[in-house]
Amino acid sequence: MRPNSRPTKGARSRAYRRWLMAGCLAGAVPFAAPLAAMAEPIPYAMLASTQEPTSAPSAGAATAADARRQLNPTGRDVTLTVPLKDGEFYVGDMPLAISADGQLSMPSDRLLSLVAPLLDAPAVGALRTALAGRSVVSPEVVASAGMTMTYDPRALELRMNIPPELKVVRSLQVTPMDRMGLGSYVAPAGFSGYLNIRGSVDYVEQGFDEGLGDPTFLLDSAVRLNGLVFENEAVWQPGGNEDFQRLGTRFVYDDVKNVLRWTAGDLQAVGRGFQAAPDMAGISIFRSYSVLQPQTIARPRGRESFTLARSSDVSVILNNQLTRRIRLDPGRYNVRDFPFAQGANDVRLVIEDDTGRRETLQFNVFFDRSQLDPGLSEFGLFAGVKAPLLLDGPDYTEEWTVSGFYRRGITDRVTLGVNGQADDTTVMMGAEGLFGTKVGTLGVDFALSHIDTYGSGYAAIVSFQRLFQFAGGRADALNLSFETRSREFGPVGTFFPDNRYNYEIGVGYSHAFSDAIYASFDGRYSSGRDEFPDASAYRLGMGYRLTSNLAVTANLMYDDVPGRRETSALISLSWQFSNNSSLRAEYDGREDRARIAYQTIHGQGVGSYNAFAEVSRSPDDSAFNGSVNYIANRAELGLSHFQAFDGPDNGRTSLRVGTSIGFADGAVSVGRPVYDSFAIIKGHKSLKGADVVVNPTPFGYTSNSGELGTALETNLAAYAERTITVDAPNAPAGYDLGSGSFRLFPPYRSGYRLEVGSDYSITAIGRMVDADGQPLALVSGRAVEMTPGSKSEPITIFTNRVGRFGASGLRPGRWRLEMGTTPPTVYYLDVPASAEGFVKTGDLKPNASGG
């Protein structure tokens, strides 16, 4: 059988076939054009101005032209399939054409089909008007519809910025979870699985643990059998006091049709409102229209707290600015415990553990809320026993606990919800509401609790968000919040209610004066309870883009918190001196510390690397922090070093390696760590061991089969459409690989076995003549396989003015060639079993009898 998806041709085959098809097309354009359009990717035309320049181009124009040319260093037009994203949300794959001079274009019908479900009716109408009936458009066309689109050549993706007021009120994952509307895909393997191994070893120059440390391995695995997933996470540290720690084990089953996830085992509870997320084991049912990723190194614990399972480096990013890098031990942390969080309206923590695994947690004071379509609901119910994580793994107690929430879209502008949780000592019930009004979005959360030892309490928070949209795509944002907690309030897991503030008020506003200048203000005031003093923090920020690659930002901060009252400044200068490298210098007045940091990224996929180096200096000490990460075909490699000077010397060098082994329906491969789903790609035996390259682009590729004979594509996300492209540059001459892509819609923790090439790899060339020996000129037809039981699709063929034809995608056996004359002219072609690549048929004569 012919495979579901057939890959692109080899390099030598492509050159020969261009010559062949050019000869066949000569004089046959009326017939060849529609057929070629069916067989080959559409060469989308590049958009260009039709007006001649009236004067010499300016230096700025020359710079822009040079930047465009850097998008495509090949010197020829190329067409890529890249992901289109709305922020960080994956929308779908987009064919993107990049001309030799760097002009971008894409099919307008594909753009409309992907973006329209995200927009309300007026916005869809504005987008249709902007497209103006054109078949291909550039990314800039969406600007007239109030949106922006940019292309990131390093990430190979298109990013859209859609203002919230243009979006339809819905949860964006509803459509991706609906298989019925997504077409046909390659089926995943019935039995598949993987094991990730992330290892690290440290060398400490000075300190109590001086010398080479014990290696640490973070292990996570998943096995999938016909929709049921068994997954496990553990830490192995040979030589440690507890050399093996199991983090969690569970069975997961996704009911995709009803958007439900069933879990049994060590649960990872999700909380709403004021709920905590207790460590527990039992069963759960969960519905969410966002992609779920249960394997984490840091677990959100509610509104402003989180738990680290491993020692980790934590980078603190406030309002898109890196302000701190801290090393934290395992344990529970509250964002408010850190003075850098005071007054900030957007706190992101980038957490990287000892083995190099990364996770990002976001704590927005004004909370990122999502409305649901009328009738849609999200919910979660988690029930079982408490299972706190100890040194050797979860400790399964006999103490019961339960937690759950339910949210439902009531109207286009109203979403309501309830939540609750309880154990043997604590009960908490809450309610939430999200209201889209004409002046902004209003959110309300309210909860009541009762703790046996301390009594009853309450908590409430009200937030308001408003976006002011202006011409040119600029917008101002206003955020307000009010929160109060009574002395005795606490969720499940509270040992001692620590509600030190009567109430807290937050405000934030940002304004863009132009494309180059913006300013923002945010503040927070907390009213202390009893002997605990009041606290307040305020920040005034401004940014100015001096040139296209040089920007300066400044923040003036005032903090009045227990033990500290000060005014300080944070000033930074960023220089993007190439597409791949940047330099950042900053001064932090809170510590009287100056920093200068350099980072660079080179390449895409296999063979790429990134490097980072930072030097900092304060009156008390100075330090160096640097790292290099390399992407290999079978592993991710990292080397980092930290060195402190002038104070207590502290030097640490870390080596990190991440790899995985995966299997799918009998195929096995080794590659980089798997993040959710994966695919094993191997060449058909007819390829004679030729190397298979996965996702080739002018900038690199993601994996290749190499000496093992299989490639592992490890970066597939569950319930997100993905197209994998393949090539075999060293395939036998004349080998026809086919369409060159596999279209996937991966289930949770799924694996694929994909085969590149097939028996249908032969190209036949020759000439057709009629019964009188005259050329059969300018006629189209089809080739049908005569092998009993064959289910292959007919192959379209056509002749040129002298009767020459080319038929690709054949395999050994008898084929019936039926040409579109009246009556049809029939030929028979026998492809010998020993055929490889090209077969020359000579002159074919009609033979209606088939003899």
From TrEMBL:
InterPro entries the UniProt entry points to: Fimb_usher, FimD_plug_dom
Bias kind Low complexity: ranges: 53-65
GO biological process terms held by the UniProt record: pilus assembly
GO cellular component terms, semicolon-separated: membrane
Region (Disordered): 53-74
Gene3D superfamilies for the chain: Outer membrane usher protein FimD, plug domain
GO MF annotations, alphabetized: fimbrial usher porin activity
Residues spanning the membrane: none
Signal sequence, start to end: 1-39
Keywords recorded for this protein, A-Z: Signal
The protein's name: Fimbrial biogenesis outer membrane usher protein
Organism, scientific name: Caulobacter zeae
